[in-house]
Design brief:
The protein is of the alpha/beta class. It contains 16 helices and ten strands.
């Protein structure tokens, strides 16, 4: 079964009867992809079932079905969760959604509250639109991207601000979670909390999100968090294996192949945990190794130029979604590169190599 099946199957059991688990954590991540901009008023705290009622009063389900990206099915997650004993009475607070294309910023988060017990902070990842990945790839040459900075501020605010949330529910333990870039933000934000607050974090879940440069893992804050971090990778993971990741890892079975394994709706669930695999796929091993080799050959300035060129190339190829990569072939990519006359020969060579890596993954 997938996470939607799990919601229906587990719907009648509260968190007191069956504690929060790794599948619940991914369910929260899937919910976090839904855009709730028109649901919440400023600083409003609502029950999940109230959020669903407002949302579906504003949106037609037939229109929601036509959406692209990971958020295509997030409305189904919200609908499935709304009237269950397990999720319906959870409170949702601290919803934020900031997008600035000029600054290459995409940041969104929300906090779910199980009254008197815990808060689960959810950082949204990138969706499957190609432009949504630009900030992720800028991690190749930036020590901190804007979304990471925003995540630190958000988590510090949620855990330390004596706001309405804390006045009503008091201080509680925390789960912090995220899929894709959201997983990276979860780890990064927790590492920048005061030590006294870090002690209240029960677990940090990173679902196929990229790691960090080596020096980030050497900071005192990250070392304190490391025992609480669990990274979940589909067997063919590519994005989740970018950079260094020293955390404990679990390999998940996905019913899809190639890049589509990154989609959390393709991960298979058994009871209250994921169906696992012992080893990562060789095709992904090869792609990750070759990517890291390419990264190591270039300076930060060169990497910035390459990333900018990658996204110029995707525009030329009219790639809108990750699924569009499946329709590409190398001759078409080479032709598009020739049309980008401003690129030097070295950059074109690197882009062809990168395109070859992604093409191999997309058809594996």
């Amino acid at each position: 079964m997938d996470i939607l099946d799990y919601i229906h199957w587990r719907s009648d059991l509260t968190f007191d009867e069956r504690p929060f688990n790794e599948v619940d954590s991914l369910v929260f991540c899937a919910l976090g992809y839904e855009c709730l901009d028109d649901v919440f008023q400023a600083d409003e705290v609502l029950k999940l079932n109230e959020v669903a009622e407002r949302f579906f009063a504003l949106h037609d389900e037939e229109d929601l079905k036509k959406r692209l990206s990971v958020s295509t099915r997030s409305y189904q997650v919200l609908k499935a969760m709304a009237h269950t004993r397990r999720y319906g009475e959870l409170m949702i607070a601290g919803y934020v959604n900031e997008i600035d294309h000029e600054l290459d910023l995409q940041f969104s988060a929300l906090t779910l509250i199980n009254k008197g017990r815990w808060k689960a902070v959810v950082f949204r990842g990138t969706d499957d639109t190609v432009t949504g990945w630009k900030e992720d790839f800028s991690m190749l040459y930036r020590k901190e991207v804007l979304a990471q900075n925003k995540a630190v501020s958000y988590l510090n605010g949620i855990t330390q601000d004596e706001s309405l949330i804390n006045r009503i529910f008091g201080k509680m333990d925390y789960f912090v979670t995220g899929h894709s870039k959201g997983g990276n933000l979860a780890m990064y934000a927790c590492a920048h909390l005061p030590e006294s607050v870090q002690k209240r974090i029960q677990r940090i879940d990173n679902f196929d999100g990229p790691g960090f440069r080596e020096e980030v893992w050497e900071t005192a804050g990250m070392k304190r968090c490391l025992p609480k971090i669990r990274t979940y990778l589909p067997a063919g993971s590519f994005f989740g294996r970018m950079f260094v990741n020293q955390s404990q890892k679990q390999i998940i079975y996905s019913r899809k192949k190639g890049l589509l394994q990154h989609d959390p709706y393709n991960w298979q669930v058994e009871v209250d945990h994921f169906e696992t695999r012992e080893f990562l796929e060789e095709s992904a091993d090869k792609a990750v190794y070759e990517l890291n080799e390419l990264i190591g050959e270039h300076t930060e300035q060169e990497l910035e130029e390459i990333v900018e060129s990658v996204f110029t190339l995707t525009e030329t190829l009219q790639m809108i979604k990750l699924e569009d990569a499946i329709k590409l072939d190398l001759p078409r990519i080479v032709k598009a590169l020739k049309e980008l006359s401003a690129l030097d020969s070295k950059t074109k060579r690197v882009l062809i190599e990168l395109a070859g890596l992604l093409l191999d993954l997309s058809i594996s």
